[in-house]
């Protein structure tokens, strides 16, 4: 397990000249006040206070919530973290209790969609500790997304510390170990300053809100769902913003997504916008095809697909168990060769796909059928990643960051 302190030390050591990294097994924690990124960079970790017990952040799961009934929807918590970029620099972050935000009527996020967001989870372990899953990856991705729509960079260590501090302040809302739930973190970066001519804003707001969410698959992975291949709409254009987690990508998915649900397909698969011959990704999750006979894990390579952190993790686990991972073009016709198809993302980890249906212009249907029950590879990969997140097996890749 990697602690936040160790992670910060590594990051700081690589970015600050003359910084001496502390030993990895030190038990330092950061004090409750939230230093700015500049302070973080300058402050030697030896000045930070030392935790003596594992529950220094407090006990998870003490809020009065029906832990076994949580779904994936908004619920109020104690606070969210807020930080403003003004006069060319990030200001001090603060914890805010009100879930409302006062935004200028000319904010670029509202008019021009200058906004991007992230999604990650924190899990309670049996020892009472709370652990973020791969927040460094979300930090890197929010900066790639922000860069694409001309927003200022959030230093990786500032992002991780923001996640750490907001979880710590809301530790009562972290679902307890054994509930299968998690605290879902939704970092959001948007242009909050006014512009009427199209230009980037001068002011930005970064928030991290948290929501306790339940285990999507209570009692184990659910039966596969049927997906629809979308031909009437595209999610992302070549050289567009598909690889960025920008807000507008999701508004563009609303009509096809809701229409598919009405037709009885809970999930939509998008193709490449230029030719509609290649598989790209689902609305909010990446595509994985499994060929069990040849022990292959195949996922699309496209500049229009969002690089999923779950997909990246599952690829590593698949390689660990000897599978060959191929990231390459997948023709629609190749769908007939897969034994199992998975949609993967932070919210549910994996959604097993039972079939994919495509209608041609005349309403003729072609259907690609996969395993009727949850496939063996899907189940194995899911169990492994969930066991790592829950601290139940060794975290050999150092994906868990202990909240301190
Ligand atoms: C378009 C899209 N693809 C894939 C994913 C899955 O990404 P991750 O595994 O990082 O949650 C998401 C969710 O963030 C998404 O919105």
UniProtKB/TrEMBL annotation:
Q: What class of enzyme is it?
A: transferase
Q: Does the keyword Signal apply?
A: yes
Q: What is this protein called?
A: Branched-chain-amino-acid aminotransferase
Instruction: Tell me which Gene Ontology terms the entry assigns under biological process.
Output: branched-chain amino acid metabolic process
Family from the record = Belongs to the class-IV pyridoxal-phosphate-dependent aminotransferase family.
Q: Look up and give the organism this protein is from.
A: Skeletonema marinoi
**Its Enzyme Commission number?**
2.6.1.42
Q: Which UniProt keywords apply?
A: Aminotransferase, Pyridoxal phosphate, Signal, Transferase
Which terms does the record give in the GO molecular function aspect?
Answer: branched-chain-amino-acid transaminase activity
Supply the InterPro entries for this chain. Answer: Aminotrans_IV (IPR001544), Aminotransferase-like (IPR036038), B_amino_transII (IPR005786), BCAT-like_C (IPR043132), BCAT-like_N (IPR043131), BCAT_family (IPR033939)
- Which PANTHER family does the record match to this protein? AMINO ACID AMINOTRANSFERASE, BRANCHED-CHAIN-AMINO-ACID AMINOTRANSFERASE 3, CHLOROPLASTIC-RELATED
Q: Signal peptide location in the record? A: 1-18
Cofactor dependence is on: pyridoxal 5'-phosphate
Residues with N6-(pyridoxal phosphate)lysine modification:
245
């Amino acid at each position: 397990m990697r602690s936040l302190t160790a992670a910060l030390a590594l990051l700081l050591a690589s970015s600050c000249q003359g910084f001496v990294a502390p030993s990895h097994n030190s038990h330092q924690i950061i004090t409750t006040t939230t230093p700015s990124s500049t302070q973080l960079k300058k402050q030697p970790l030896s000045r930070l206070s030392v935790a003596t017990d594992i529950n220094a952040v407090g006990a998870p799961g003490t809020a009065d919530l029906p832990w076994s009934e949580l779904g994936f929807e908004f619920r109020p918590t104690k606070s969210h973290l807020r930080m403003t970029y003004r006069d060319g620099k990030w200001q001090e972050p603060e914890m805010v209790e009100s879930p409302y935000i006062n935004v200028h009527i000319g904010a670029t996020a509202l008019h021009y969609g200058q906004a991007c967001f992230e999604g990650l989870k924190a899990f309670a372990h049996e020892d009472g500790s709370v652990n973020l899953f791969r927040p460094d990856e979300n930090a890197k991705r929010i900066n790639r997304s922000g860069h694409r729509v001309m927003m200022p960079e959030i230093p990786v260590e500032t992002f991780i510390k923001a996640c750490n501090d907001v979880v710590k302040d809301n530790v009562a809302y972290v679902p307890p170990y054994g509930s299968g739930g998690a605290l879902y973190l939704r970092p959001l970066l948007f242009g909050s300053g006014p512009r009427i001519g199209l230009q980037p804003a001068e002011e930005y707001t970064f928030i991290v809100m948290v929501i306790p969410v339940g285990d999507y698959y209570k009692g184990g992975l659910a039966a596969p769902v049927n997906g629809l291949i979308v031909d009437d709409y595209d999610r992302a254009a070549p050289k567009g913003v598909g690889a960025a987690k920008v807000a507008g990508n999701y508004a563009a998915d609303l009509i096809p997504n809701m229409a598919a649900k009405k037709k009885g397909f809970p999930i939509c698969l998008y193709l490449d916008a230029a030719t509609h011959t290649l598989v790209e990704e689902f609305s909010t999750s990446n595509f994985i095809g499994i060929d069990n006979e040849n022990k292959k894990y195949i996922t699309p390579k496209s500049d229009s697909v969002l690089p999923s952190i779950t997909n990246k993790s599952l690829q590593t686990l698949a390689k660990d168990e000897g599978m060959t991972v191929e990231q390459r073009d997948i023709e629609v016709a190749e769908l007939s060769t897969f034994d199992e198809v998975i949609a993967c993302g932070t919210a549910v980890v994996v959604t097993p796909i039972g079939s994919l249906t495509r209608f041609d212009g005349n309403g003729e249907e072609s259907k690609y059928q996969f395993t009727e029950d949850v496939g063996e590879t899907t189940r194995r990969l899911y169990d492994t990643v969930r066991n790592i997140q829950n601290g139940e097996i060794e975290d050999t890749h150092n994906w868990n960051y202990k909240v301190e």
